[in-house]
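Reopening this one. Same input as before:
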Amino acid sequence: MTETDNALYQRQGFGRELGIVGQVGLLIVDFVNGFADPAAFGGGNIPQAIAQTKPLLATARRLGWPVAHTRIVFADDGSDANVFSAKVPSMLGLTETNPTSAIVPELAPLAGEYVVRKTVPSAFSGTPLASWYAHRGVQTLVVAGCVTSGCVRASVIDAMSLGFRPIVVADCVGDRAIGPHEANLFDMAQKCGDVMPYETLLSRLSNQ
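Same output, byte for byte:
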């Protein structure tokens, strides 16, 4: 974005930082084999975002954060097809046993980490995820995953709407196209969460 864009948003009162408040949780959105593969749903900077999420996940585990992962999982017979799958019919192939829907091995969940199965972009829509975090006292939600312009953005907007303070880790989210990735990082930073690279997040945590 240009300086003019930034100045306009600032003048209108957008972009205030929410900060880290209370218990922190981690949400990793749709880092599954299909989105890691450019021949399926991947491309762009998604592989780099997956690699950078490895140390982020290690940090979350070391600090004892509640951790949740999401997968898109449709029924084998397509009986739960919806408007999302009508728009992107290939999503119906992401079923429970299809390897494309499995979380990438390097980010495989550990016991006690919640795996959310969803059929829409948001991790919160139609799932118990908000109550799962609330039960564990989460107030600030660190977000990684893909794609930035789709399921990540939808999840961040819903997290903010539900009263969580989202922090989008800029180098731990990816998209199959860089233009939408960058535009959505800018927009989320202005309207619904904080956006920062992993190293900045580590620095903020160390100063808590």
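So the earlier flakiness isn't reproducible anymore. For the record, The beta strands are 23-29, 67-72, 114-118, 138-146, 165-174, 194-196.
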